[in-house]
Structures are given as structure tokens and as C-alpha cells.
């Protein structure tokens, strides 16, 4: 399909001159609206303004420019329909073969801090989506172009073959409808923003990058982001080295980043299969790493590591001694990168993101045919609301209890975390029995040479019976923190008191399925 006449109406002018001049060189007549026509004229191109076709000037301060039958009939006419062709001839309307539109930046304006409602509303594009949808609907005869990223490919095809193929037009139509759908979804989401769970949930996701593979090598995968979100998993993150990221890498990375952001002091989180296997804080990030690794060095094979301080040469050399799948940090010295980049598989990520996760962001879980939607569990521990039902914990004990409780929130249910001196020494998650989870956590601590005497235990859910806490206390654990809420809370608390140990009830649980 050759292109003889093009309608151009764009908000973003980047690469516009290159595209329009390329069309003009191919003999394409240019028609443009408002500011687009002015920009093309300034660039020295011959252009027909839209009002010359409609014989109506811009109305309502520019709100009405292209909403006119002479514009939309020229886009929507079917060239093989005799009645459509006769109508165009009767009305002296020449059809458009290409429509290039990009939309007002609603999301950018509406997302600004302190933006007024009327400012956001003015960025709701009406004419642009109408023209783009019309061109996409009539893709059999019209080339719909909706982003500057498409300019070079369209020009290249016109130059090489003198036309734009049906396959390309269909692909561009799909992208055009995806753009307008995402645009409308963002607007709907903004209007419904005051409701936690509106009657209709509209999501606008954009592909950030293709992934190496899904949960298994035979599964394809890609990473999509919500452009409405202030931050996302890879926002302000640069990959400095290593293989292409996979779906599992991102899943583990999400778990590691969310966990390490729980701490302001130097901290290290080591993750396997979306669960922390070693977490520790220290006076330096080097100390934090050594303690996190020592928590469970066997599970740390092929680990995802997140630290909240820059990686220096010493830590870089220590990390290079291990099989590290993904490493993310807020900075890397050259002396650290030298040994790390000798490992071709290690994915090294530089994290420049300083913003926190939006507390209003929802958590989604896919089920067949739908989504389960909930608030994110961003709750932080509030010592004042907790209830001490046994013993009298000192400040050191409180520190370990709150540390273990922070880690526990990020472990798959049933979650049990053993901690001592701000270091995890045994973690178990994903068991169907809570008492089994206690026993496995104790076994892992013993296996890696950790003494449970004087340690604390955190449980993401209540203990329905005393057997779980008693198994831990018999191994030397001195304090337990758990949500409470069981019918047998009094019985469980009495058993802990009889053992001379401490128990704290938090009043809320941290299940993560």
C-alpha cells in the first residue's frame, strides 16, 4: 500500500522533522494540526494546516481541532467500497494513507507532585485517540503511527518497497490500540484513585524488557511495568555485567530488595527461591555480608544478594569467591568490579533508586481467569502496640525480636525465623505444619554450627498449640514473637512462662503465600 497523503498531529516533537522530511522526500503530502503544522513549517517543510481542510479554525482554546467529518471521513473511508469512494468524491474529500499521532502526556502531568485537578484534566486527549483509533480500525488502507520509535521502520519500508505491508499495518494497528487502551486505563485509574478497590480495575502495563526465560527454560517471559507507579523493580537500576535476567531472577530480586529496604544500618540479604536464607546487619556492609552468608552457606549457592551500601574491593573479592546469580548494590568501586566481572554469569545491578514503594500500590496474585488484589504488606513493627505476655525482654532481646519479625514478613508461610545478635541462624518457610517449620529451622541452625541458646524465634502466624514454642525453648531459644489470636493463646503463653522464657504478641500477622 503506497502512501500519498499523511496526517500528522503530535504532542512530542522529537524526531518529527526527520520523519516528516523523509515522507516529503518520498512525495507524500503533509497535513498537520496546530503546533505540529507550525513546527513543520519552521523546519522548512511544505504543510497544509488542518483548518484549510475543515474551513473551521481551532475552537475552545485548541480543544477542538481535528474533530470534524472531513478529517475522520478521510481516515475511515474504505477504498474498495464503492459507496465510501463515492461519498468522498461527492464531498471533495481526499483520503489519508498515513496517520501519525502521539497523545498528550496525561500520566506525566497527573503524576506530578501538587498538580491541580484542572491541569490533569486538560491533558486528557480527545482528538488524538479518536484519530489513532480510526486509523487503526482502517489499517487495511491506512498506516497508523503512534510513537517516534516507529518512524524509522516505516520510512525504511517505504524507501525499500514503496509501500507499507499489510503485516506491518496490522502490527502498527495492534500497537495503536494498545497505546489508546493504556491511555484510557491510566485516566480511569486516576479518576478512581480515591477508591481502594473500584468496581472496575484498569491496568496499563508496558513491556520493560524481554527475559531470558520464565520459571523454566521452555517458558517464554517478559517484564511489564505499571507506568503509573512511582517506582518499579528495575526503576533506576542499570545492569553492569552478566547474563540476561530471567523471570526467576526478577522474582528473587524483588524479595531481596523489599527485605533489604527494611534496614537503615548496613545490611545484607541473601535470597533463594524468593525466600531469605541469610539476613544480617553489621557495623559495615562487609560484616553484614559475612554474617548473612554464615547464616546458611549451603543454601546460598547460586544466591541473589542485596546490600544497602556500596561494594568495595574487599567485599567484591569475597563475593567473587562464591556462585552469585544476581548482585544488587547502590554502588561499586572499580576494585570490586574487577574480580566480579571475571564471572561471566553473575548479573551485577547498580541500584540508584532512592524512592520507597508507594504505600497505595496493590499486590496482585494471578489465578485462572482473574486476579486476587490486596494491599501490600508494608506494615512496620510498632513496639508500643505489642503485648509482652511472658518475661521481661531487655533492649538487646527487643532488638533481636524486632529484627526477626522484620525478616519473618518476607518468608513464605508457615514462616519461622531464628535470630541471634541481629543475624538469622535458621529460617524455614513453606511448610504445611508450623511445628515442622520450627523443627526444620532449629535443624538448619544446628547444621550450620549456630547455637540456639539465647536466640529468638519469630512466627508469621499464631501458634495453635504450645508444641512449636516448646520445641524451640527446649533447644535453648529464650524469646518468641508471634501475632497471637489463637483460642489457646493463654495456654501457649502459660507454657512459655513455665519455661522461664519471653513471649511477645504483635497483634497482627505476616502471612505470605
Brief account:
The chain has 513 residues and is an alpha/beta fold. It is 36% helix and 20% strand.
CATH-derived topology of the largest domain: Rossmann fold
Strand order of the largest sheet: 8-13-12-11-9-10
Computed CA radius of gyration, to the nearest angstrom: 30 Å
What distance lies between the first and last C-alpha atoms, to the nearest angstrom?
53 Å
Q: What is the CATH first-level class name of the largest domain?
A: Alpha Beta
Total number of domains: 3
How confident is the prediction overall: mean pLDDT? 91
CATH architecture type of the largest domain:
3-Layer(aba) Sandwich
The poorly predicted ranges are none
Question: How is this structure best described in words?
Answer:
The chain is an alpha/beta fold. The protein has three domains: 5-191, Rossmann fold (3-Layer(aba) Sandwich); 236-351, AICAR transformylase, duplication domain (Cytidine Deaminase, domain 2, 3-Layer(aba) Sandwich); 384-505, Cytidine Deaminase, domain 2, CATH 3.40.140. 36% of the residues lie in helices and 20% in strands. The chain has helices at 16-25, 34-42, 50-54, 69-76, 82-91, 106-110, 117-122, 127-137, 151-161, 166-191, 247-260, 285-295, 313-320, 334-340, 395-408, 434-447, 467-474, 489-498, and strands at 5-10, 29-32, 48-49, 98-102, 143-145, 205-210, 222-226, 237-241, 267-272, 275-281, 303-307, 324-329, 347-351, 362-367, 370-375, 387-390, 416-419, 424-428, 456-459, 479-482, 502-505. The strands form five sheets. A six-stranded mixed β-sheet has the order 8-13-12-11-9-10. It has a six-stranded mixed β-sheet with strand order 16-21-20-19-17-18, with helices on both faces. A five-stranded parallel β-sheet has the order 3-2-1-4-5, sandwiched between helices. α8 runs antiparallel to α10 (166-191) and α13 runs parallel beside α14 (334-340). The longest helix is centred in the middle third of the chain and has 26 residues, at 166-191. The model has no long low-confidence stretch (mean pLDDT 91).
Amino acid at each position: 500500500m503506497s502512501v500519498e497523503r499523511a496526517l500528522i498531529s503530535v504532542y512530542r516533537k522529537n524526531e518529527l522533522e526527520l520523519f516528516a522530511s523523509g515522507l516529503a522526500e518520498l512525495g507524500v503530502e503533509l497535513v498537520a494540526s496546530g503546533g505540529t503544522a507550525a513546527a513543520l513549517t519552521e523546519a522548512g517543510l511544505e504543510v497544509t494546516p488542518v483548518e484549510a481542510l475543515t474551513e473551521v479554525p481551532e475552537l475552545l482554546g485548541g480543544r477542538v481541532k481535528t474533530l470534524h467529518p472531513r478529517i475522520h471521513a478521510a481516515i475511515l473511508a474504505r477504498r474498495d467500497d464503492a459507496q465510501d469512494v463515492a461519498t468522498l468524491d461527492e464531498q471533495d474529500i481526499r483520503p489519508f494513507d498515513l496517520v501519525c499521532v502521539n497523545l498528550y502526556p496525561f500520566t506525566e502531568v497527573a503524576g506530578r507532585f501538587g498538580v491541580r485537578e484542572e491541569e490533569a484534566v486538560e491533558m486528557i486527549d480527545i482528538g488524538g485517540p479518536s484519530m489513532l483509533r480510526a486509523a487503526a480500525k482502517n489499517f487495511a488502507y491506512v498506516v497508523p503511527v503512534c510513537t517516534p520509535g516507529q518512524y524509522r521502520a516505516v520510512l525504511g519500508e517505504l524507501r525499500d518497497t514503496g509501500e507499507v505491508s499489510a503485516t506491518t499495518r496490522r502490527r502498527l494497528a495492534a500497537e495503536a490500540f494498545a497505546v489508546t487502551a493504556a491511555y484510557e486505563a491510566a485516566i480511569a485509574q486516576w479518576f478512581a484513585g480515591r477508591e481502594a478497590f473500584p468496581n472496575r480495575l484498569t491496568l496499563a502495563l508496558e513491556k520493560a524488557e524481554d527475559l531470558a526465560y520464565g520459571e523454566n527454560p521452555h517458558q517464554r517471559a517478559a517484564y511489564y511495568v505499571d507506568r503509573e507507579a512511582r517506582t518499579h523493580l528495575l526503576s533506576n537500576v542499570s545492569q553492569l555485567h552478566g547474563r540476561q535476567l530471567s523471570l526467576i531472577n526478577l522474582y528473587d530480586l524483588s524479595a531481596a530488595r523489599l527485605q533489604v529496604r527494611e534496614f537503615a544500618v548496613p545490611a545484607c540479604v541473601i535470597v533463594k527461591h524468593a525466600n531469605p536464607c541469610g539476613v544480617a546487619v553489621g557495623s559495615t556492609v562487609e560484616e553484614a555480608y559475612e554474617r548473612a552468608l554464615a547464616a546458611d552457606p549451603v543454601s546460598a549457592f547460586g544466591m541473589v544478594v542485596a546490600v544497602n551500601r556500596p561494594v568495595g574491593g574487599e567485599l567484591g573479592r569475597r563475593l567473587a569467591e562464591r556462585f552469585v546469580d544476581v548482585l544488587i548494590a547502590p554502588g561499586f568501586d572499580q576494585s570490586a568490579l574487577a574480580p566480579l566481572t571475571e564471572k561471566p554469569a553473575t548479573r551485577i545491578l547498580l541500584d540508584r533508586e532512592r524512592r520507597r514503594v508507594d504505600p497505595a500500590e496493590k499486590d496482585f496474585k494471578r489465578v485462572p481467569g482473574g486476579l486476587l488484589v490486596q494491599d501490600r504488606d508494608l506494615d512496620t513493627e510498632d513496639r508500643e502496640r505489642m503485648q509482652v505476655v511472658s518475661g521481661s525482654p531487655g533492649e538487646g532481646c527487643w532488638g533481636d525480636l524486632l529484627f526477626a519479625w522484620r525478616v519473618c514478613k518476607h518468608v513464605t508461610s508457615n514462616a519461622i525465623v531464628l535470630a541471634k545478635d541481629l543475624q538469622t541462624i535458621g529460617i524455614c518457610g513453606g511448610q504445611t505444619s508450623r511445628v515442622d517449620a520450627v523443627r526444620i529451622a532449629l535443624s538448619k541452625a544446628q547444621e550450620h554450627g549456630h547455637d540456639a541458646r539465647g536466640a529468638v524465634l519469630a512466627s508469621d502466624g499464631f501458634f495453635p498449640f504450645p508444641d512449636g514454642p516448646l520445641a524451640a525453648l527446649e533447644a535453648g531459644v529464650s524469646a518468641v514473637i508471634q501475632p497471637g489470636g489463637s483460642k489457646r493463646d493463654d495456654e501457649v503463653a502459660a507454657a512459655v512462662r513455665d519455661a522461664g522464657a519471653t513471649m511477645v504478641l504483635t497483634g497482627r500477622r505476616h502471612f505470605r503465600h
